[in-house]
Amino acid sequence: MMITPRTASGTLELLPREQRIFQHMFDIIRRGYERFGFTQIETPVFELKDVLLTKSGGETEKQVYFVQSTGGLQQGHEADLALRFDLTVPLARYVAEHERELAFPFRRYQMQRVYRGERAQKGRFREFYQCDIDIIGKDKLSPAYDAELPAIIVQIFEELKIGDFTIRFNNRKILRGLLSGWGVVDEEAQKLILREIDKLAKIGAAKVKENVTALGLSDKAADDLLRLTGHEGSKDEILSELKVLPIDNPAFRQGVEEVGAMIESLRALEVPEKRTRFDLSIARGLDYYTGTVYETTIDAHPEFGSVCSGGRYDDLASHYTRSKLPGVGISIGLTRLFDALRTNSLLPLAKPSVEVLIAQLDPSLSMDYLALATELRGAGLRVENWLEPSKLDKQIKYADKAGIPIVLLLGGDEKAKGAVVVKDMIAKTQAGVPRGELVPTVRSILGA
């Protein structure tokens, strides 16, 4: 029986030209992380089930892929392994397990696939790349690190040339302090109100007010909250307004101080003012964020949602060690970002995998073609040889379909003259070039 070849839903499989662009984006992110002194780690694709699900609730467990061998299934054993659904839990396990061998603050980047049992729909993936950076401290971690992460993301996104973008940041201590100052002191009620604030853009101010008053916030406090979360002033203007609020709460004051220090650090790091915004509506629904939180949107395409997010947490690995390991991190969802850019024809340009094809015009010159390829590779160029007798038209069509920008033609006449014909596939031109000028000519065409 013939099986129809097809990919599983929720996965991303690319043709070579798009794969080249994906790898180009991957490399820019990796280089950006390394430029700021982060070191790479990788963790196994699956973790022990009891380790992976220690901090997870029932909803998360519903999205987990469990791993079981055929033999185990036949013997009726329960799966004891599960595919990772993010890179944060594996990081917590990794730091707790290797705590004595690591130097703190531990600066790691990790760029690997994760797996999540998402409902199949556009823009949601079951297998996708996350590109994470985290800075983990031992016992404490200065708030000074919080400004470094947006500085990294700004450099990376500008190099990716994805258009104008904005990194919105906030501090959950401010929001919690405000809620306490307005009489909502129950921690669970505060969590629920923060989740409602995080839905502001989706459900609107009226619905958020209805929900937060039902959770115990007074009508006046709800109005004040919505006014602050809708503030569109500059970072300094919002900060000034917060400083004069009659809120006598230590967490609130600490949060305001930390945001002030972060704004100063962003300027010292020469992050353009337009790239960051202090936005009190950014709450991040995840409970483990305790201080700074970040969300990044592409200005012309807010419908993409956040393409890079993260925040600070007080204790990364409390379920695995008694040590206190505070940290701050941020993550780029590369697969989702790539898919959104591709859908809207916004993908960046990338260098071709093969830069030069050496055509075969005369089989008797096959050794000359191989020698020419070796010469060009020695100069750092990526070169492919056509190795079988074929019509030139077929070879040119191949180069065009494969996206190879330059074809070199060497026949008996060119060899006698010590020259090579360089065919520019993009400009649709060709010219004879002396061998001694071949490498600089090729590099000029490539823009290298």
Structure write-up:
With 448 residues, the protein is α+β, with helices and mostly antiparallel strands. The chain has two domains: 16-343, Bira Bifunctional Protein, Domain 2 (BirA Bifunctional Protein, domain 2, 2-Layer Sandwich); 356-446, 3-Layer(aba) Sandwich (Rossmann fold), CATH 3.40.50. It contains 18 helices and 16 strands. The protein has helices spanning 16-35, 49-52, 58-62, 70-74, 88-97, 148-160, 172-181, 187-198, 200-203, 205-214, 219-229, 235-243, 250-268, 334-343, 366-378, 392-402, 412-417, 438-446; strands at 39-40, 46-48, 66-67, 81-83, 106-115, 127-136, 165-171, 276-278, 292-298, 308-313, 327-333, 356-358, 383-385, 406-409, 419-424, 429-434.
Question: How are the secondary structure elements laid out?
Answer:
Blueprint: H1 16-35, E1 39-40, E2 46-48, H2 49-52, H3 58-62, E3 66-67, H4 70-74, E4 81-83, H5 88-97, E5 106-115, E6 127-136, H6 148-160, E7 165-171, H7 172-181, H8 187-198, H9 200-203, H10 205-214, H11 219-229, H12 235-243, H13 250-268, E8 276-278, E9 292-298, E10 308-313, E11 327-333, H14 334-343, E12 356-358, H15 366-378, E13 383-385, H16 392-402, E14 406-409, H17 412-417, E15 419-424, E16 429-434, H18 438-446
Parallel strand pairs: 1-5, 7-8, 12-13, 12-14
Antiparallel strand pairs: 2-4, 3-4, 5-6, 6-11, 7-9, 9-10, 10-11, 14-15, 15-16
